[in-house]
Fold this protein.
Amino acid sequence: MKLVPLFDKVVLKALVAEETTKSGIVLPGQAKEKPQQAEVIAVGPGGLVEGKEVTMQVKLGDKVIFSKYSGTEIETGEDDEKLVIVKQSDILAVIE
């Protein structure tokens, strides 16, 4: 399945969250933080959104940090891959 986002939407693939704390404590599934780092796998065209011109600032392959509880989570049919669709404004930073 290929996702093509519309307007100012971006499709992200979450990067793996750490399973241990800095002190070495292994976290159970429920205690893990929701990942906030992701890789951009699709970018919408931008354009006119709510009366304002939006220029896309991210591109395919960028590693980004996004708001913790933003976006819509979906699962693709292939390998039950979990993706998140967010507005570009929910992306806080690009990791260089």
